[in-house]
Design brief:
single chain; 294 residues; alpha/beta; Rossmann fold
């Protein structure tokens, strides 16, 4: 079956990034095949769904795990790997010319390596989550298909669901709404790279139809942002509310600093994140306060 250059499949289309990506692709005139847990990519783990057999791009944004779940549920880590392995095998046979875009993790894959992390930085994951993402990357590299690994830093924004151990901005904003304290492991000097969801999906959408792209791309703000700056941004947005913070010792897998070098995305795709932290926090706060969410 010939490829449809206007079609892309999004695996994990009901997830945070998958939902936003599906919408963004459609606004750009791309026909989107939404792949979900109820309608998975492969049938009996052997063949692709018929409607996926003509796409030119597959975005793999599906996952059962986050950092906390990966540490507690190795069975779910194994299921994620098995699902991707089955998909890779079917894709190599049935859509060998399609591009597979794997959404990986910027901070946890690089792990204890010295930041800022470029695509040439040797990964040193310190968590089960980071190791599982790196194994997915290795499976992709051995799969025999054209592929791009996209290492996303700490994405946030409207549509992000609450999840244990992930999504500090969303977690803290929800805590403010419910007048609950938040816990910080370590101190407010901890540095991360926060990137707004619309910036992430802008880059991902640019990959559809691109002929020459790097095998690995970092996607982040490129800005080292301490937790203290996140607190300030939240207080600026919410005005009359203040976070109640409880401090706990840093855990063995908690990194003091992680942020990405995103210059390759700028060089090859003309992309950079454009949403400032305070603007992104304001958009997420407005969404959380809307009647449809509350």
């Amino acid at each position: 079956m010939a490829e449809d250059s206007h079609a892309a499949a999004v695996v994990g289309a009901t997830g945070f990034i998958g939902t936003a990506l599906s919408r963004e692709l459609e606004t750009r005139g791309v026909r989107v095949i939404r792949v979900t847990a109820d309608e998975p990519a492969t049938r009996d783990g052997l063949s692709l769904r018929p409607d996926m057999r003509a796409v030119s791009t597959v975005y793999w944004a599906a996952s059962r795990i986050n950092p906390q779940i990966a540490a507690e549920r190795p069975d779910l880590v194994a299921q994620d790997l098995a699902d991707f392995r089955a998909f890779q095998s079917a894709a190599a046979r049935q859509i060998p010319d399609a591009t597979i875009v794997l959404l990986s993790s910027g901070g946890t894959v690089y792990g204890s390596a010295q930041p800022p992390h470029s695509e040439s930085t040797t990964p040193r994951p310190t968590s089960d989550y980071g190791r599982s993402k790196l194994e997915l990357e290795r499976l992709l590299g051995r799969g025999g298909t054209r592929s791009v690994i996209v290492r996303v830093s700490n994405a946030y924004g409207p549509g992000q669901p609450p999840a244990p151990g992930q999504g500090v901005i969303g977690h803290w904003l929800r805590a403010l709404l419910h007048q609950e304290p938040v816990t910080v492991f370590g101190d407010l000097k901890t540095v991360r790279d926060y990137v707004f969801v619309s910036d992430v999906v802008d880059l991902l959408a640019r990959l559809h139809g691109s002929v020459e792209v790097p095998e690995i791309l970092n996607v982040g703000s490129g800005t080292p942002t301490p937790l203290a700056t996140v607190v300030d941004a939240i207080h600026t947005v919410v005005g009359n509310r203040h976070l109640e913070i409880e401090f706990e010792p840093r855990r063995p897998f908690d990194l003091p600093a992680a942020w990405l070098d995103v210059s390759l995305a700028a060089e090859r795709l003309g992309w950079s994140a454009t949403t400032e932290l305070t603007d992104g926090v304001a958009q997420m706060w407005s969404w959380l306060c809307s009647p449809a969410v509350r």
